[in-house]
Amino acid sequence: MAAAAAVAVKHPGAPRNLTEPIAVRVGLTLVALAYLLLFLLVPLAAVFAEALQKGWTAYVNAVTEPVALSALWLTLLTAGIAVPLNLVFGVAAAWAIAKFDFPGKNALITLIDLPFAVSPVISGMIFILLFGRLGYLGPWLQAHDLKIVFAVPGLALATIFVTFPFVARELIPVMQAAGTEEEEAARVLGAGGWATFWRVTLPSVKWGLLFGVILCNARAMGEFGAVSVVSGHIRGKTNTLPLHVEILYNEYNFQAAFAVASLLTFLALLTLVLKSFIEWRSSRRAESPSEPTA
Amino acid sequence: MSIEVRNVTKKFGEFVAVNNVSLRVPSGELVALLGPSGSGKTSLLRIIAGLEQADAGRVLFEGEDATARDVRHRGVGFVFQHYALFRHMSVFENVAFGLRVRPRAARPSEKQIQGRVMELLKLVQLDWLANRLPSELSGGQRQRIALARALAVEPQVLLLDEPFGSLDAKVRQELRRWLRRLHDDIRLTSVFVTHDQEEALEVADRVVVMDHGRVEQVGTPQEVFDHPATSFVMGFLGNVNIFHGRVEDGQAILGPLHLDYPEHPHAESLPAAGYTRPHELEVDRAEGAGGGFWAVLRHANTAGAVVKLELVAGENGAVQVETTREQYRTLHPATGERLYVRPRQVRIFLEPR
Q: pTM to 2 decimals?
């Protein structure tokens, strides 16, 4: 009933006879809620139940042991490297695609989507093939005493590759919708390219940008496949949180595995809260019409 | 500052938007570029602004070649059709933008900016909206803010792209009279684009009629209205009745119209068309002199400043006539009545074969 009332409030102008009968509305809402409960909330609750099955002390021990802390640190580090780089790349790519016409534009759009199309495991293996001991650049790297795979740079590279579409994909439609008139207006008023970008282009897409960054960050922290291949699973050295969870689980240390998993869950929940806050903010902006009305 | 356009051509792929156009706008004039959509008027305006590069030809400001000058340094104010206000900035910041992005040496102090912006907002009579966002304004208000923003940088030339295009009829009329008064006050060389002939004739000092990327005619509103140079100009500037036919031996036989045409005294027959405006036709019950014809009154629209009559002249189709309310009352014709239609003025244009 509450859901039906909310629908009615959201569309005050919708005539009664255009909405579905109340039974249909309530029924559909219940189906959706049941689905959410079964596939999202139950597993979520299970994570915390399992994590706390041996009590609070065991939980705290599992998440504060040095190996877990190092995994947490490594996860934050890779995300901290990948997200800013993809932010810069994404803004540059979206700017180029949305505001300019150039040959090869469609090829660039396709390339940006590539990580979505390729299985993460394959992307990890590409880096082994390139930088591994037997890879194309392996001997050169060894001669110069540089370590990429089975080390932090490899983790960062794999994470960057897997997450680079997010910011660009989020920004391109927003920038295209904004058009180029405001930039033209800025130029006529004497603004250079740099001032136009900082004062006009970027502020007009800031919510889309933040949204892209959050999605990018969520994926960067949760990435398993690609990272698993290049990590080498060296405890306390090259294990990120998802990898650490897997190791604990494979050692039948279920309680610790779920405790560490709950950390990732917290990160995910935080992301979701931020995401819905941003959606709420940007929808509020969208409601005030920006198109000419009179 | 005067503007001169010399032999400018602009193509978009195969489409020729502007075809070898030359034009002079004397300093201080308000000029309208008038034409249907696709006539190249907006492209020409954007080339003058520097937002578009011409494929050939030159643009001169005050006799000085500005073709290669960047849009930032042309000293033009540009008002966009959809305003293009910065939607995340307040009205005040929108108007202040052009001053704030100046290089440090040329940038006015915060206090000067404050003063200048409020002065401009008073000029457009919207100083009470300084802290609003563009999305909170009506279309007419946005357009005036866009104008204030363009004027803030003290441009030498003001260019307006369909400035009233997306406003409703009443706001549009008010705003164009206001623009005319504003121009009379500040006397800034201005060019505006419009597809509305009434707007062009009412506001502009001079009208440039364009079609298919070419200039058809340049003149004062009176000149282009009373002495259209081509059939296109005649047809575009207001309603018109067209009678197709031919000219030969100093005579024009145009459907039901038979007129003298001394301009073509030769025996060779050429296709031609007679153009006459609804108010240049008279109706009467008696047959008068001057090569008119009989037609049946089908409908009279008396709701308006003039009475609009629709008549049918045999197989020659419908004829529109406008008459004063007094004449209509005196004559008082009934629907279905046969009336004699007499042209006071017909312009004859030879048609391409």
A: 0.78
